[in-house]
Design brief:
FAD/NAD(P)-binding domain; alpha/beta; globular; 5-stranded parallel β-sheet; binds flavin-adenine dinucleotide; 2 domains
Length: 378
C-alpha cells in the first residue's frame, strides 16, 4: 500500500487531499493507497475574510467550517500537529506521540505573523492576520476620530495585496464616516516602489495620488517607539502616527523551524516539481515553500492541483510529471466598491485592469465560493 501523508489542513492541504481522493478513488477503495492528513486544528478558517472582519463587514464566526466537513470521507483526518519530521526514515511524529509513516509526504503548514521581529510592533500596531487582531483592528478603527494613520509592511507576508487593500478600504471607511478631512494616510513599503509587482505598483500609485495618500518607499521598520508613537526605519527615516496599521513580517510554522527544515520556517523547494530540495518523496506547497512568489491561497490552490496530479501518478506507478509554472491569481479590493485582479506566473507579469464593481462583487461572492473551491467543486 502507498501511504500519502499531508501535514497541514489549510487551503493547500485540503485542496490536495480532495484532489488526490478524487483521482485515486479506485485505489483507495481497493486498499492500495491511503491518504492521511494531520492538522493543528479541527476547524478550517477562510483567512482572507479577516480583512472584512476588520471593517465590520463579516462576522468572525462565519469564517470557519469543520475541517472534516470539507474533506473527502476517504481521507483519514487527525488533529495531531506534527512535531518531529524524520525524513530519513519517512516518519512524522505528532503531538500525541503517534508516529505516521509515509511513502510520499506533502508539507503545507502555512505561515504566521511574527510581530516580535520589530521591537515595539506588538505593543503599538494593529493588524488583520489573526481573528483576535482583526477584531481589535475593527474596534480601533471604529473608535478612531482623527489623526495620522501609518501603514507599515514587513517581509515576507501573506497575501501581497493586503497592504494596498487595507489602505483603500480604510480610505472608504473614513470617507463613509465623514472623517476624511481629519485623517491622513502614510503608506510605506520596503522596496523602491509601492508594490512588489511592478505593474501593480504602476496601477496603484495614481490611485493613491487621487486619494491624497502619501507614500514612502524603501521603508523597513526597525523599531517602534511606543511612547512617542513613532516608527523608525532601517533606512534612518521615521514616521509619526496616531494609529499604526501593520502588515507584519511572517515566518513558517514553529515545527518546520524547530526541525531545521528551512531557514525562517520556509522549506527550500524546487520551483517546478515542488519537491523539497534534496528529497524525492517530500513535497512542499503554499506559504511553507521558500519560493519567491506570493504567499497566497491561490498559489497554494494551483500548486495543490499540480501536486495532486503528480502524486496520483507516483502512487500508481509513475508517468510524466506536470510542472508548476508559478501561477497566481489575486483579487485586489480597490475602494469605492470596485476591485481588480492580478493574474501572473513565472513568465508573465500581471497587468491589472481598471477596477470595476463587477469584480468587487465577484470577490465578495468568492468569500462564499471558497468552500466549494477547497472541496474541489470549482
Ligand atoms: C488577512 C488575509 C487576507 C488574505 N487575502 C488573500 C487573498 O485575497 N487571496 C489569496 O489568494 N490569499 C489571501 N490570503 C493568504 C492565504 O490565506 C494563505 O496564503 C493561504 O491560506 C496559504 O495556504 P497554506 O495551505 O499554505 O496554509 P494555511 O491555509 O495557513 O494552512 C496551514 C495549515 O497547517 C496547519 N498546521 C500548522 N502547524 C501545523 C503542524 N505543526 N502540524 C500539522 N498542521 C499544522 C494549520 O492548522 C492549518 O490548517 C490572505 C491571508 C490573510 C491572513
Amino acid at each position: 500500500m502507498k501511504r500519502i501523508l499531508i501535514v497541514g489542513g489549510g487551503t493547500g492541504g485540503t485542496i490536495l487531499a480532495n484532489n488526490l481522493a478524487r483521482r485515486l478513488r479506485r485505489e483507495l477503495d481497493g486498499g492500495q493507497v491511503a491518504i492521511t492528513m494531520l492538522s493543528a486544528s479541527a476547524r478550517h478558517m477562510y483567512q482572507p475574510g479577516l480583512l472584512y472582519v476588520a471593517f465590520g463587514k463579516i462576522a468572525a464566526a462565519d469564517l470557519y467550517r469543520d475541517q472534516e466537513s470539507i474533506l473527502d470521507p476517504a481521507v483519514r483526518f487527525h488533529v495531531d500537529p506534527a512535531e518531529t519530521f524524520d525524513l530519513d526514515h519517512n516518519e512524522v511524529k505528532g503531538k500525541s506521540g503517534t508516529v505516521y509513516g509515509y511513502d510520499y509526504l506533502a508539507i503545507c503548514t502555512g505561515s504566521r505573523p511574527v510581530l516580535a521581529q520589530v521591537p515595539g510592533l506588538t505593543e503599538a500596531a494593529h493588524h488583520v492576520y489573526t481573528e483576535e487582531a482583526a477584531l481589535k483592528t475593527c474596534e480601533a478603527l471604529r473608535t478612531f476620530t482623527g489623526g495620522r494613520i501609518a501603514i507599515v509592511t514587513g517581509v515576507p507576508h501573506k497575501c501581497p495585496m493586503v497592504p494596498l487593500e487595507l489602505t483603500f478600504m480604510m480610505y472608504d471607511y473614513f470617507k463613509d464616516r465623514d472623517l476624511l478631512d481629519k485623517v491622513s494616510f502614510t503608506y510605506t513599503y520596503p522596496i523602491g516602489r509601492i508594490h512588489s509587482l511592478e505593474n501593480v505598483a504602476k496601477w496603484a500609485a495614481p490611485e493613491f495620488d487621487r486619494m491624497g495618500v502619501r507614500y514612502e518607499t524603501l521603508f523597513n521598520a526597525k523599531e517602534v517607539d511606543v511612547a512617542q508613537k513613532r516608527v523608525h526605519s532601517e533606512e534612518g527615516t521615521s514616521i509619526d502616527f496616531d494609529l499604526l496599521i501593520s502588515v507584519p513580517p511572517h515566518k513558517g510554522m514553529e515545527a518546520v523551524e524547530q526541525n531545521k527544515l528551512g531557514a525562517g520556517g520556509f522549506i527550500p523547494t524546487n520551483r517546478t516539481t515542488l519537491a523539497m530540495e534534496g528529497r524525492q518523496n517530500v513535497f512542499v506547497l503554499g506559504d511553507t515553500t521558500n519560493l519567491p512568489i506570493s504567499k497566497a491561497g491561490s498559489t497554494a490552490h494551483y500548486e495543490a492541483e499540480v501536486l495532486g496530479e503528480n502524486l496520483a501518478r507516483l502512487a500508481t506507478g509513475g508517468g510524466a510529471m506536470r510542472p508548476y509554472e508559478g501561477k497566481v491569481f489575486c483579487f485586489i479590493e480597490a475602494g469605492r466598491d470596485r476591485a481588480t485582479y492580478a493574474s501572473f506566473d513565472y513568465k508573465n507579469p500581471p497587468k491589472p485592469r481598471p477596477p470595476t464593481r463587477a469584480i468587487h462583487w465577484f470577490k465578495l461572492a468568492y468569500n462564499e465560493l471558497y468552500w466549494n473551491s477547497v472541496r474541489g467543486l470549482l
